[in-house]
Structures are given as C-alpha cells and as structure tokens.
Sequence to fold (568 residues):
Amino acid sequence: MANVPEDLHYSKDHEWVRVEGDQAVIGITDYAQDSLGDVVYVELPKPGDEFATNESFGSVESVKAVSEVFTPVSGVVAMINESLADEPETVNSDPYGTGWMIRVRMSNPGEVDSLLTAAEYEDFTKAEKE
Amino acid sequence: MLESIGLKAADELFDSIPDNLLLRRQLNTPAALSESELLARFDQMGALNAGARRISFLGGGAYSHYVPTIVDHIISRSEFFTAYTPYQPEISQGTLQTIFEFQTLVCQLTGMEVANASMYDGSTALAEAVLMAERITRRTKVVSPTSVHPQYLEVVKTYVQHAGIHLELVQFDEQTGQYGEALASSMDDQTAAVVVQSPNFFGCVEDLTAIAEAAHAKGSLLIVAITEAISLGVLKSPGECGADIVVAEGQSFGVPLSFGGPYVGLFATREKYARQIPGRLVGEAFDKQGRRGFVLTLATREQHIRREKATSNICTNEGLIALAATVYLETMGRRGIQEVAHQCVQKAAYAAKRIAALPGFSLPFSAPIFNEFVVRAPGAARELLARLASEKSIDGGLALSRFIPNRENHFLVCVTETNTREQIDALVDGLGSVSINN
Fold:
C-alpha cells in the first residue's frame, strides 16, 4: 500500500504539497513514483520562474516513460532540489523527503484548500487503480 | 499465384477501382531497350553533364575530395546498404557499432563530449542546434554574422520562424571577412546563442575563442557551424575554443558531390546538454555476460516516447552516409586527415597568391583562410566565370552576387587536394586571358 502522509495536500496529477508559511514544497507521491518505476532524470525549472496552477513545471523520466509534473498551486519558484540532478533515485526512495522537487512562493495560499486531503487522495488512487 | 488467391485474371486485382478512373490504353512511354542499348543511352545522357567534366574550383558548402574505393565497397554490403533504421540491439550490433564509431570520431574531430548518430545535413543540423539552444537557455534571440553560409541561415529561418525564435543578422567586417566587433555587442541577456561558421562562407577562419568568451559572459551559447569538415584536420577544434554546440556538413568525409545530396550532418555538444540533443544516440553497454555491445540510449528525448515534447521530429539518422564518413575517417586516420587538410591549405594559398598577382584581381579580405577565398575581379564575376567555363572548361568559382547584393565582381574560389598544380595554373592563366579579352 502506498504511503500517504496525513499532513500533506494532494493533486489528482499525483503531486503532494507541504505548506510552510507562505511557501509550498512540491514533489510527487509514493503512488506516482511506484507507478513510474526507477527514476533516472528529473527536469526542473529555474528559481524565479512563475507558474499558474496545473502548469507543467518539469518532467520525471523513468526507465519506462517520461511524465510531466504540474504545479498544484500557483506561484514563483523560490528554490529547486538541485541534488536530484545527481541523485534522481531519491524520488523513488524518499518521495516526501529528500526527493522533493521545488519550493514555490505561493501567489494565492487559499488554493491549497481546493487540493485533496490524504484520505481523499487515497480514495482517488484506489478508484484509479480499479 | 492467381489461383491460390482465388482470381482468374490479373485485371481482377483492380476491380475495386471505379471504371471511369481506369486507363484503357498503353502508357505513353518509349519501347523497351536491350541492356546494351540502355547503357549507350545512359552514356549519351551523361555526356550532357558538361559541368561534371570541367576542372572545378567550386566550394561554398560542398567540396570535391578524393574518395578511397573502400568507402563504396563497404557501404555497398547488403547488410548496410538495404537495411532501413535497424536499431534493435538483438539483431543490429553491426550497424549500432558503426554509429558508435561515427559518434566517437565526431567527438574527436570537434573536441566535444557527445555526438549524435547524425542529422540530414549541415544546415538542418544548424537549425536543430538553434532550437536546442532555445531549450537550454529558455531565451529566444539568436545572433549570427552574415559571414555564415546564406543558405544555412535560410534553413535556420525556415525552422525557427514559427517557434518564437528571432534570428538577428549582424554585418560581417568588410576588411577582414570575419565577424566584426558588432557581433559581441549585439548579444544581451535574452540571447540564447551566437552562431558562427568557421571557416566561414568566405573561407576565412574566425576567432572562436573570443566569441565563446563574449557569449558565455552573457549566459549565451556558442554554436559553431562548419561546412568544410576537412578543416578540422588542421584548425584548433571548436571544443577547445569553448563551443557549446558544434554542427558540420560531413560531405567532405568520403561522400561524393552527387548534385547536392544525400549528405550527412554532424552534431556534437557538451555532456551536460546530452538530454537536449536531437535525434538518435547510440551508447556502449554490456550484456549479462559482461560482453561489450551497443544500444540506442536516451531515447526518452525522442518523438516515439515524448510525443510533442520531443527534442526534435527527427527519429532516424543519415545511416548510410554516416557509415561512408566513418569508413573514410577510419581509412584516412588522423595523419591522413591532417595530410588532406595541409594539401588544401597549401594549394589554396598558392592559388590565392597567383590570382592576386593578376592585373586587376585582388583579395578583398585580410583574414587567414583554409581552402576557400574570395577574389575581386576587374569586371562582373558571373560573366567572367561563364566565359571561363565555356572557353576553358574550368569552373573557376562561385559568383557571390547570387547570394549577396553589391558583390558583382566577387567570387569564391575553392581549392582541394584533388586540384593539381597544373589545374591551378590553368585557372590562373584562364582568368588572366578571359579578363583581358573582356
């Protein structure tokens, strides 16, 4: 069973969001990394790039496929996880920790409320599996 | 055969075509010829190609070099000659190995770290390099001096015109024939790349190191284009000069002129940009028993996986011609390529010196050259060259007026190792006598 931490927010594109003040840390879920398989490359934006909600901010390349990743909330990129350039496999081993992708300064923190809760996301992935 | 597919006559194969679309008469073609008649007919037609038998000093993007017999022999082997894009590693180790060797040779020649399996030709490789620079820098302006081959610039414009990339041309330096000081100052923080050709369209060798530094200072990339790849045999490699992407026309490596194609594009870059490369890429791998093998690699950049986000719509390579280039380079070896390049330099220098000494003729540009140079004639170059061709059976060069306005008296002369001293002397004498009788 995929790990779905209680304290995070989730998107239907399988990204998670951790709110820290006015900033949001974004990555992909355990369910997503498990479906993708071994991640070999993560393409990320540059700090300062601005994104609307549900905009493609990069891509995750696994041995099976390339998938785009989308911004669950709008804002300006404050920081990217540069260690993914050398260790993309941390997206697999620690998707909610060292495998985080970008940190966004949210332009509208209220957007978080429209995301899924852990329980809702769990139901969503179950439904998607069936 | 008809019986086994359940038909009575061959005509029944066409039953599904509406009656009014069927041609009810014989095709209007000449009667069949015997083999000997056919060969005689081809000889006759071939003789009409007067230009093919003239002494030639034509360059400008396609170059006459000696092609060792082994090149045709190897590429004519049916395993190579008839196969279409055989990339499955289980059955195509031979093809994949030759591509890997090709890539290795391109890296060695250009001084770069990664090369792809080849592009259609030099000009399309340049266009792909411009698109790649936009992907890497996420900037949309590209600058280029007008000393880059005009047809290469046309191809780039065609590729980028709807991609939101703006190509800005900067006038070359009229004294030197190289890019001018205005090139560096035309770059700003929106410039994705600067494109420089060396040796350039006028045959002049450009200062790549200086423009690399200027580009990098603005966070821009240096794209180097090469039309005469033999020059890599003597010139400092673009990689050593700081180039970020190097593209070249590979025709000089064992590929006959053949009316302009098929040729082969070389494409090389830095390893850090490998994921932005267009086209196929072959890598070295090891199987379960630890044996060396070759496979396509980084295929996730490509169209069949990444769809519209692919780095390019090229999903193949110029396989057979890349093989010809590989066989040529491996036959000639490092010393052979250097020798060809040295002969080009020396013969071109001899020709330039003798032509410049003719009354009324001069060399308008001061920069060092490789095997091409511009000549200023006492009259219109187009007429002069036409008379040289008809009266002396010599193609003396390329009239620049075809590409650049206000250059009626200028023409581009190319000298390679295939031109003998007698031919060069005949060119000089021909130019002298034709211009006097003008």
